[in-house]
Amino acid sequence: MARDHLILLFLFPVFIQGFDIGQCGQNIILKNLTKIQHIAVASNATESARGTWPWMVSAGFQDRSQWIHACGGSLISDRHVLTAAHCTGYRGLRLRFGDQSHFSTADDDHVVIRDMVTYVHPKFGESGIETVYYDVAIWELESPVEFNDFIQPICLPRLSNEDIDSHKDELVDIIGWGRKFRGATIDGVLRHAPLKIFAQEWCNITHARAFETNDVIRERWPQLFPSCVMCAGHSNGGYGSCKGDSGSPLVKFESGEPYPRYVQLGVIVGGVGQCGNRDFPSTYTRVEDFEVMNFINAVLKRSNPSARSLLDGTMSSAPVFSEADTMEQVQEILRNRFSQELGDVFASVLIKQASERLIELDEDLDFPFDVSGTTLIHEAVRFNSLDTFKTLIWNGADLDSQNDFDQTPFHLAAELGRSDMIQLALQYYADPDIKDSLGRNALHVAAKNGHLDVVEMLLRYGMDIDSLDEQLRTPLHLALANNKNRQANNATALYLIKSNANVTLADRDGFQAIHFAAKNAPTHVLEQLLWRGASQSSRTKIGQSPLILASSESNVEVIQYLIQAAEVDVMERDFENMTCLHYTAQRNLFFPSKILLEEGVEINAKDMRLSSPLHYSSQHGYSRLNKMLLSNGADVNAQDAMGMTPLVKALSDDIIDRAHEDTAKGLIHALADLQVQDHNGWKARDQAVKSGYDTIVQLIDDVLSGRLVLELPKFEEIVIKRKKDGISDKIDEEVVDPVKEWLDKNGPKRLADDVSEFFSKPTKQFIGHFENDELKDKVKTEFNRPFKQLEDVLEKDKVESELKRLQDRVKESKTIKRVQNKVEKEAKRIFKIFG
């Protein structure tokens, strides 16, 4: 579909606050309260009262008397509406303001506007494929909309933010006229739902596990979740965006200064599968991304002459500092202006004016103008004003002045990657080895933030590549430890490694470079460390190995590399006897847990508290992970050092929630022993009563009274599960076929057929004896018969020789070994159930 829009090709940061729009992010409720709290309620589609979200805009069409909603948007000024780029392809689109219900006559004060210009982010769809990246656009109205109680703008963040996880776990709201659930019709009612912003790593994990099998994810999320997108949802699912919500805002309530308000952090892009999908949380354009924020600022600048004059630097110093005759008066003006949370460009101009005025007055340029000891030259670096930075240096400003965090301007330049300022400061003999309050010099700071060009410059200058901070961490440690800009940090780490950084130095916690790399870095970084002398068996002070750390941080690529290529033992334990599976179960890391089980980790291993992975998973209410552990043979009745079973652990949390309740139900249906007592003599029912889980108490009573009979899992289902895992195919490929091939050459044809039959189809015979009391003997018979027949037909020494050859082959193949472990584990589980 053709798009009627413009694309901005040149983007510059500008001062957004040039518009006189009063107080943004306010609604009727906030204007009438002196003390407010988060007003969203816990529902997955709560109808909103009129005037609650006055910045909401409906984009759609007027069909006679009926409004047809297509997408949402948010009013960010009296002439601009922020929306999703994929919403701009409709012809004849109109915008509707000040409405709550499209089909109600109770709020007929709405305004409909059709004359507008569309601006789409230039990177949206630049590859020719419409991905989720930079899915943001702005409609600029031909004439401004008039504000009232039901039409108000939303606040935007003041500055871009490189920290992609700065809002991790924060509560936010999404608002929209979309469907209440998948399959429902759009009823024209504005609703909101509370969500939680997930860590970027979790967004990547949820989508990565389906990357190879899901065409939609592979095409629309080719890079998963870079800085320009984020995800939000609810751990139990059911909360999220739906069809018709695209372009609508994700907002956060801020109760601090300068006044209580809502701030928009995201624009709804969409999701995968059903609305509120627990497995794939909805995706949002991240407004604080640098390139997204620059795009918004560039569009606003086109309609804001005052912003243009600020950007061009033509604002005279007279209106601000002309009456300031002393350093103290300049200081007071700066404090007042900076208390208003200025935009980057205005702040830069202000710093320039203040510097020029102080030079005119021949005053001290190094005075601190705020409580943190910040000087003008610090702020010139912060707001990237190179001209002001030069002016201050040429007029004697101290390049080594330190704020209350002991940071020099050089530290800030290294932190922000201002390589031009770094080069100039070195020419004027700034000391890059000065340490801040954390004991870090400029090289530490540059490496931590992934500024490779600055790191190269400082190493050429002669700085110590292995200098230590207060925590005994080197620049290499910091480059690998920081996960904010992973690609840049990896490149910086590789440069430091190849520049002969010491890879075996340990910090105060015993972390070496390989430990940080195992948590965050890809395998090629790990390979370089190992090649330079790092050890895959090295331990931290609490006994964590690289494999344990990779597992705890869900670094799947490194987990597989360490086990398969570096031949690390999957059963490594820390000094509390915890395995990798304990860590993944404790953190609800489903996919890494699955990989560890496939690699042969012992599912019922116990730590020093005698807790199994199932204890940890149950304690935190991870029902989905529990189900996988149980299906792989986890002992549902294992007791820890206090005699507590996983069921009692699941019920021990006094905060009643659905996750723990579902977990407890799953354990009961997995035939948890309800009569087991802990060391205090408590049973599962006692704990359920104490914690207030009434539904679990009722379920236990029903089971104990016989009103509810729980059935064993059907063996056929186990067979199907194992078949899906490909175990039968592996047995055929690695064991049956070689034996059959050998017997074709060395034994009777009939015997070869028999071996194939008994190896590849034992499950059918298990099912045939499903209700037989002598199942255990039957199982043994079916497993032993092929070898018994071999002994009967062939010479015993020949059989032993061939079996030894096959055993040696098994030892050489890790795949076969893992398959054997699974077969043996399955046999033991069958014996336990039916024996």
Automatic annotation (TrEMBL):
<keyword id="KW-0040">ANK repeat</keyword>
<feature type="domain" description="Peptidase S1">
    <location>
        <begin position="41"/>
        <end position="301"/>
    </location>
</feature>
<dbReference type="InterPro" id="IPR033116">
    <property type="entry name" value="TRYPSIN_SER"/>
</dbReference>
<dbReference type="InterPro" id="IPR018114">
    <property type="entry name" value="TRYPSIN_HIS"/>
</dbReference>
<feature type="repeat" description="ANK">
    <location>
        <begin position="471"/>
        <end position="508"/>
    </location>
</feature>
<feature type="repeat" description="ANK">
    <location>
        <begin position="372"/>
        <end position="404"/>
    </location>
</feature>
<keyword id="KW-1015">Disulfide bond</keyword>
<dbReference type="GO" id="GO:0004252">
    <property type="term" value="F:serine-type endopeptidase activity"/>
</dbReference>
<dbReference type="Pfam" id="PF00089">
    <property type="entry name" value="Trypsin"/>
</dbReference>
<feature type="repeat" description="ANK">
    <location>
        <begin position="509"/>
        <end position="541"/>
    </location>
</feature>
<keyword id="KW-0720">Serine protease</keyword>
<keyword id="KW-0378">Hydrolase</keyword>
<dbReference type="Pfam" id="PF12796">
    <property type="entry name" value="Ank_2"/>
</dbReference>
<feature type="repeat" description="ANK">
    <location>
        <begin position="609"/>
        <end position="641"/>
    </location>
</feature>
<keyword id="KW-0645">Protease</keyword>
<feature type="repeat" description="ANK">
    <location>
        <begin position="438"/>
        <end position="470"/>
    </location>
</feature>
<dbReference type="InterPro" id="IPR043504">
    <property type="entry name" value="Peptidase_S1_PA_chymotrypsin"/>
</dbReference>
<dbReference type="InterPro" id="IPR002110">
    <property type="entry name" value="Ankyrin_rpt"/>
</dbReference>
<keyword id="KW-0677">Repeat</keyword>
<dbReference type="InterPro" id="IPR001314">
    <property type="entry name" value="Peptidase_S1A"/>
</dbReference>
<feature type="repeat" description="ANK">
    <location>
        <begin position="576"/>
        <end position="608"/>
    </location>
</feature>
<dbReference type="GO" id="GO:0006508">
    <property type="term" value="P:proteolysis"/>
</dbReference>
<dbReference type="InterPro" id="IPR036770">
    <property type="entry name" value="Ankyrin_rpt-contain_sf"/>
</dbReference>
<dbReference type="InterPro" id="IPR009003">
    <property type="entry name" value="Peptidase_S1_PA"/>
</dbReference>
<feature type="signal peptide">
    <location>
        <begin position="1"/>
        <end position="18"/>
    </location>
</feature>
<protein>
    <recommendedName>
        <fullName>Peptidase S1 domain-containing protein</fullName>
    </recommendedName>
</protein>
<dbReference type="InterPro" id="IPR001254">
    <property type="entry name" value="Trypsin_dom"/>
</dbReference>
<feature type="repeat" description="ANK">
    <location>
        <begin position="405"/>
        <end position="437"/>
    </location>
</feature>
<keyword id="KW-0732">Signal</keyword>
